Amino acid sequence: METKQRNVQVIIFKTLVVAAFAVLAFQTWQLQIVQGDQYVARADRNRFRLVSVDAPRGIIYDRAGRLLAGNVPSFTVSIVPADLPEEQEDYVFQRLSKLLQIPVSSHDRGTQKDPSIDRHYLSNAEGYQPQPQMKELVDSGRETPFTAVLIKSKVERDVAFTIEEEHLQLPGVVVGVEPLREYISSTVVSHVIGYVGHIPEQDAANFVDRNDADYDANDIVGLTGVELTFEEELRGRKGQRHIEVEVTGRDIRTIGSPIEPVPGHNLVLTIDLDLQVAAYEALRKGIAEADSESGVAIAMDPQTGEILAMVSLPTYDNNLFIGGISQEDYAELAEDPRHPLVNHAISGQYPPGSTFKIITAVAGLEEGVVDLRSVLFCPGTIWIPHRFAPDDPELAQPFNCWYKEGHRSISMIEAIAQSCDIYFGVMAGGYGDFKGLGQEALHSYSLLFGIGRPTGVELPGESTGLAPDETWKRLTYGETWVTGDTFNAAIGQGFVLATPLQIVNATSVIANGGTLYEPQIVREIKDVGGNVVRPFTPKPIRELPVSSKALTAVGQGMRAVMTHGTGWQASVPGIAVAGKTGTAEFPGQRDWEGHLPTHAWFTAFAPFDDPQIAVVVFVESGGEGGQVAAPIAAEILAHYFGVPLPE
Question: pTM for the full model?
Answer without folding.
Answer: 0.85
